[in-house]
Design goal:
The complex is a heterodimer. Chain A contains 8 helices and 8 strands. Chain A is of the alpha/beta class. Chain A has a 7-stranded parallel beta sheet with strand order 4-3-5-2-6-7-8, sandwiched between helices. By secondary structure, chain B is an alpha+beta fold. Classes of the chains: A alpha/beta, B alpha+beta. Chains A and B meet through β1, α1, α6 and α7 of A and α1, β1 and β6 of B. The structure holds guanosine-5'-triphosphate, magnesium ion and zinc ion.
Chain lengths: ~220, ~110
């Protein structure tokens, strides 16, 4: 006869250590007035291309910086550094996502009071980064026109945790017969009302609206209107 | 595969909870939401790997899957959804952003040795 097991009730969030650290970093970012963005997408959706141009253009008016997660190479960090902005690479090796402690470690010796907007390019992956809060203000999900309109349906967790959806490589929309309406609908099935912007990091299309959105977020964070 | 990272966190959190209570774990009960982004089979495999060489080696991970549930303002009711591709209420067809359950990733109980 088997004994009934002794069961102890506990209530513990599995990612509580990450969540606690993210919360304390969010407080720090609030104190320094630094706007923090977490860019997530599948590999090759255009994060680095868009970020490079964003750093270049915003860098003329604001103090910008970037952390970039990459499995093995520092190619992306080098591309971003061409903008002149401070950039640090986070080599994740086998890890498919960034965690809050990596952000904290890689911010060491950076004076956050000297940074208006901090961009974090997450590892190219549409699944894994969703669960880890990095202390960001906005999570930006990028979907390129070339990936197909059903991507959001295949990765519901990611889209559900995003604040803004960016449709990238919009210059290729016609060539791939991109179905804009289907894309918008698929995004909003899992994230009703999500804000959607269209950009081309390569050609610069839609940059003005994207930059304006970032400026607005920064002002809102600093209580200026 | 982030399930290995998640499994590592489960092992460490369960061990912390067990140590705080002075007990030895036999099984960990986990509540896992349909929208948690975690694949059950990968997590079970990850748990075996992550628990090796720890006090939790050889223990079981028991997973209770929680379906996605929204609150539908039109129906004024909580509605359980079948899939995770849409937040549309199956009764009235309205979209709702109010998720009530389905994002869980939490340890809810420990089975321990007497
Ligand atoms: N036509 C076009 N190509 C683009 C655009 N943005 C990026 N690309 C191309 O798409 C490829 C991948 O772009 P990246 O910017 O490196 O994408 P990423 O998301 O940073 O990639 P990972 O960091 O590897 O996940 C490159 O060949 C880019 O030149 C765009 O707006 N238009
Ligand atoms: Mg990149
Ligand atoms: Zn309804």
């Amino acid at each position: 006869m088997t004994k009934t097991p002794r069961i102890l009730e506990v209530r513990a969030n599995v990612l509580k250590d990450n969540d606690l650290l993210a919360r304390s970093m969010r407080l720090r970012f609030a104190q320094t007035g630094t706007l923090v963005l977490n860019l997530v997408s599948s590999p090759g959706s255009g994060k680095t291309t868009l970020l490079r141009r964003t750093l270049l253009e915003l860098g003329q008016r604001y103090r910008v910086a970037a952390l970039v997660g990459d499995l093995a190479t520092d190619n992306d960090a080098k591309r971003l550094a061409e903008s002149g902005a401070p950039v640090r690479q986070i080599e994740t090796k086998t890890l498919c996502h960034l965690e809050a402690h990596m952000i904290e470690e890689h911010l060491q010796n950076w004076d956050l009071r000297q940074i208006d907007i901090l961009f974090i390019e997450n590892v190219g992956n549409l699944v894994c980064p969703s669960s880890w809060d990095l202390g960001e203000d906005l999570r930006i999900a990028l979907f390129s026109t070339t990936e197909g309109e059903d991507k959001p349906l295949k990765y519901p967790t990611l889209i559900n945790t995003a604040d803004i959806a960016l449709i990238t490589k919009i210059d290729l929309a016609e060539a791939v017969e991109f179905d804009r309406e289907a894309m918008y609908q698929n995004l909003r099935e899992m994230r009703p009302g999500i804000e959607i912007l269209e950009v081309s990091g390569k050609r610069g299309t839609g940059m003005a609206a994207w930059l304006e959105r970032l400026e607005r977020a920064l002002k809102a964070k600093r209580g200026q209107h | 595969m982030h399930e290995l990272s998640i499994a590592t966190s489960i092992v460490s959190v369960a061990q912390q909870e067990a140590a705080a209570r002075g007990v030895e774990v036999e099984a960990v009960h986990l509540r896992l939401g349909a929208l948690s982004g975690v694949v059950v089979d990968s997590l079970l495999f990850g748990y075996e790997v992550a628990s090796q060489g720890t006090p939790l080696e050889g223990t079981r991970l028991l997973i209770e899957e929680v379906p996605l549930t929204i609150y539908c303002p039109s129906c004024q009711a909580e509605v359980e959804l079948e899939g995770i591709q849409s937040l549309r209420c199956p009764r009235c067809g309205e979209l709702s952003g109010e998720i009530r359950r389905g994002k869980e990733l939490e340890i809810v109980a420990l089975e321990v040795k007497d």
